Amino acid sequence: MTATIRFRSLFRNTSEWPRYQDAEETMSDHQVVGKIGRVTGAVRPGKAGEVMIPVRGGSEAFLARCDGDVSIAVGARVVVVEYHPPRTVIVEIVS
Fold first, then answer.
1. Which of 63, 66, 65, 67 is nearest to 88 (CA)?
2. For the chain, how many helices (H) and strands (E)?
3. Predicted local confidence at residue 95, as pLDDT
4. Can you tell me the distance from the alpha carbon of 70 to that of 46, in angstroms, rounded to the nearest whole number?
5. Per-residue confidence (pLDDT) for residue 87, from 0 to 100
6. 11, 45, 83, 88: most buried, per Cβ within 10 A?
7. Of the CATH numbers 3.40.1280.10, 3.40.1190.20, 2.40.50.140, 3.40.630.30, which one belongs to the domain with range 27-93?
8. Is the Cβ–Cβ distance between 84 and 90 less than 8 Å?
9. Strand pairing partners for 38?
10. Which residue has the higher pLDDT, 9 or 32?
11. Tens digit of each residue's pLDDT (9 = 90 or more) over 31-80
């Protein structure tokens, strides 16, 4: 409670409050579609896995799904074909 009061006292008018961006707006400058990533948690049909994708000067973890009946093992290289905010991607194996 005290922190909130101190924060609000810095900005007397609510129009001066810092603006927070939503996830979709934040990622718009850092497109993930078309990026090559690496699977860190197996992606199976109907189940989400995990991939590391290079964005914003580093690598970030995203939940990953694949279309069809394809299983993708840990360590496989994948390409992102769709992005669903805030942190889910549809991937395909890179041939």
1. 63
2. 2, 5
3. 78
4. 10
5. 94
6. 83
7. 2.40.50.140
8. yes
9. 52, 77
10. 32
11. 999 999 999 999 999 999 999 999 988 999 999 999 889 999 999 999 99
